[in-house]
Design goal:
alpha+beta, Alpha-Beta Plaits, 3-stranded antiparallel beta sheet, 2 helices, two-stranded antiparallel sheet
Length: 86
Amino acid sequence: MTTRNAAPAARLHIDWTRCDGRGLCTELLPEALARDDWGYPVTVPGRARLDADKSAVPITGAEIAAAVDAVNLCPVLALRLSRPQD
């Protein structure tokens, strides 16, 4: 789990204008994403948020492969993965 002191390996950005709540991303990233009452992805409760922007979910190094799969398999292309510049 990402803590407030640890920098995430990447950020998973959710485009709310595209997302239709199918939930594939929550199945691929259960450690990072849960579904809200309407089926849309949200950050897992208790997981540190990056900022007030609820569309940016912190991703650990161990979750990178699953996050890439979620981005590539999203049927409505609502996900984008960004990594910090070195």
